[in-house]
Design brief:
Two copies of one chain form a homodimer. With about 120 residues, chain A is mainly α. Chain A has helices at about 15-20, 25-40, 40-50, 60-65, 70-80, 100-115, and strands spanning about 55, 85-90, 95-100. Chain A has a single domain (about 25-115), classed as Winged helix-like DNA-binding domain superfamily/Winged helix DNA-binding domain (Arc Repressor Mutant, subunit A, Orthogonal Bundle), CATH 1.10.10. Chain A binds a DNA duplex (30 and 30 nucleotides) through helix 5.
DNA sequence: TGAACATGTGAATACACATTCATTTTTGGA
DNA sequence: TCCAAAAATGAATGTGTATTCACATGTTCA
């Protein structure tokens, strides 16, 4: 509880320490949040779903999701930095595909949650 | 490909339509992105991990993750709106816990990915 | 009922980030 | 080697949002 001039009591002081041990390290916490953050954008999600089953070049993705190749390229760069996509050059085109088997699972679960409630 | 004055050709025109059918609806896409987005923040992740196994009141969470109760309250509100946490009042305290069985799985997979590479 | 504590809330500030535009790099073909 | 296409890049702009601060609400207990 950082600098705060109210009068808060700690309710479960004894257990707090144990719970704290269950929280991942700041390093891992940051990595996880980065993964979620980068997937938390409709444009990037569309890109990811575009290349879920078939590799595609930047130009095709832009056409498919109705945006500019530049925007797609910027986002693919971010996705690549987090090792979520891989690229393969073939002539002038560069083909992108999912780099990670975890990503599909994440999509499945998130979609379940989205469809579940309400 | 929205208004763009370059000269981009569509490489795989025939398959684009089929791939497009595999992309979730804008509505579901938005829901999924909201879930990922809200988990894409270290502070919120800490909150989620805090109440992963045991319910805690706002004050305890604030103590545990070293921030102010106000900040925690704001974030819990966001998390609750997406039905990721539930609350239960007991006297003056309000106890929060995970509302969704999917969330733990998401954490596991994301952590795997984070630890996997490099 | 009123004082004290736990939490919620609204506005404001500061920061992060997606898109756009202009330009550059790389490749293939003439 | 020169031109055009595909993609990458950098800077600028506009938008969204986390935190902070001040205050409001709701609860317990004397």
């Amino acid at each position: 509880m950082r600098e705060f001039n109210g009068e808060y009591k700690i309710i479960h002081e004894t257990t707090l320490h144990d719970i704290g041990d269950g929280i991942p390290s700041d390093e891992n916490l940051l990595k996880i949040s980065e993964i979620f953050k980068i997937l938390g954008d409709p444009t990037r999600l569309k890109i990811m779903f575009s290349i879920l089953k078939t590799e595609l070049c930047v130009c095709d993705i832009a056409e498919l999701i109705d945006t500019t190749p530049s925007a797609v390229s910027h986002q693919l760069r971010n996705l690549k930095q987090l090792r979520l996509v891989t690229s393969r050059r073939s002539g002038k085109e560069i083909y992108y595909s999912l780099a990670d088997e975890h990503v599909e699972k994440l999509f499945e679960i998130a979609l379940e949650h989205a469809e579940d409630g309400k």
